[in-house]
Write a structure and sequence with these properties.
Oligomer: single chain
Order of helices and strands: HHEEEHH
Structural class: alpha+beta
Number of helices: 4
Largest sheet: 3 strands, antiparallel
Number of strands: 3
Radius of gyration: 16 Å
Shape: globular
Helix content: 40-55%
Strand content: 5-15%
Length: 114
């Protein structure tokens, strides 16, 4: 299904289907659903700090990506965050970037296994 059709059908994005957001009685935003969404936002923010950006939940339907320089954009789904960060930060988002991985290791104090 295309993203445009999904918006009108009310079906959650596939990135949400592994959570209880896919359960029809909770799609409107129960406590557990909001806690899981807030957890995803917190995790993404740990990564986005490397790029000088931050994401926030907006009315439990969208996300707002902000840069430290004051730029912001609204996105609908988690995967759109990465493209938006690339545009705002003017830096490619590479999950295997050694500098990013070192940053995350230092942030969570985990050492790589040999």
């Amino acid at each position: 299904m295309c993203a445009f059709c999904a918006v009108f059908s009310g079906i959650p994005h596939w990135t949400e289907t592994g959570t209880n957001a896919g359960e029809s009685e909770r799609v409107s935003g129960g406590r557990d659903w909001r806690l899981q969404r807030n957890g995803r936002v917190a995790l993404v923010n740990k990564i986005l700090e490397f790029y000088g950006c931050k994401v926030a939940d907006w009315m439990t339907e969208n996300y707002v990506v902000n840069s430290l320089r004051g730029r912001s954009e609204i996105v609908n789904y988690l995967p759109q965050i990465w493209t938006t960060v690339e545009n705002i930060a003017q830096k490619p988002t590479d999950p295997l970037d050694p500098e990013l991985l070192d940053f995350l290791r230092a942030k969570i104090s985990v050492q790589p296994t040999p």
